[in-house]
């Protein structure tokens, strides 16, 4: 992707994220250049290896997805929609951490205020890796965190 295409992808991801967040009473996210750089660096690393691995050293919230696009460029709305679909597995009546919903809960986490996005083509394959970093990180598992930060849609 060219620099301009990466910027367009980031803008699309931010807009799509904020559309979802507003439905759950969460404030809009702002772009963060530091998070863009860290997410892009990790996306480049994963594109070289072709393996999904979370960056334990990042100290931020993180969502990662590999996308098969059949010769097309990835779309920020489609990636966000994929993560948002996890909400069908989330119980707002019993809010808690669940492996099946970690992308959704980070997406709408109320106290998260910033995001950065990295996107890179996987070496030798027709697929892309997208990494999103969030600050402050969501999915913290202190008592009451999920109830406070993941609200049902209005």
From TrEMBL:
SMART domains per record: SCP
Gene3D superfamilies: CAP (3.40.33.10)
Protein name: SCP domain-containing protein
PANTHER family hit by this protein: CYSTEINE-RICH SECRETORY PROTEIN-RELATED (PTHR10334)
Species the sequence originates in: Littorina saxatilis
Sections of the chain in a coiled coil: none
Family matches, as InterPro entries: CAP_dom (IPR014044), CAP_sf (IPR035940), CRISP-related (IPR001283), SCP_GAPR1-like (IPR034113)
SUPFAM superfamilies: PR-1-like (SSF55797)
Stretches assigned to the SCP domain: 8-142
